[in-house]
Amino acid sequence: MTNQKPYxxxxxxxxxxxKTTIIKLLRETFGEKELSLVSxxxxxxxxxxxxxxxxxxxxxxxxxxxxxxxxxxDINALRSGKSIELPEYTFNxxxxxxxxxxxxxxPIIIVEGLFVFFYEELRELMDxxxxxxxxxxxxxxxxxxxxxxxxxxxxxxxxxxxxxxxxPAFESYILPYKKMADIVINNEHSYEQALEVLxxxxxxxxxxx
Length: 209
What we know:
This protein has helices spanning 19-29, 68-79, 120-123, 136-149, 155-174, 192-206; strands spanning 7-13, 35-39, 51-52, 58-59, 84-87, 100-103, 108-112, 128-133, 183-186.
């Protein structure tokens, strides 16, 4: 891929669908000079700029929660061969000190997040669009486990957000764009075969023919 623009792979899916696990395995397979990741999570606007629902709960599951302009500008910078730096999102943990993340322009760039298919300008930059799918019951089990174990959220808070924020957002801003995906990975039980296909595809893009 010498002297070629990076090949951009967009990966989306509902909360708990398994995007993070699949992307982690891809990053472990390819070197840091071959593949880089830009996560939409690191572009959340500050808590004070987020919308509050009728019960006074901050809603982090809307497209406008993300600083889309900054996100798009950084993807374009990487696409033109430049590196970017940004603070890591700490999921509103006041005790955590965000570390600075440097992302280099590499032959393969993965762009991931809940709303990466929602914005047309971003979709147009993607060379391959991947949708990770799973049933609602599987997704909510994963979400409960993640939010309680990794983020220490109370179960009542997790369930409230899933019913009133996560599900409506999924139905409005994520699921309708599944039909635009080039590849749909069924992550209900196992994703190994689909992952191997994706790895093979990426290898073909990295290794000069």
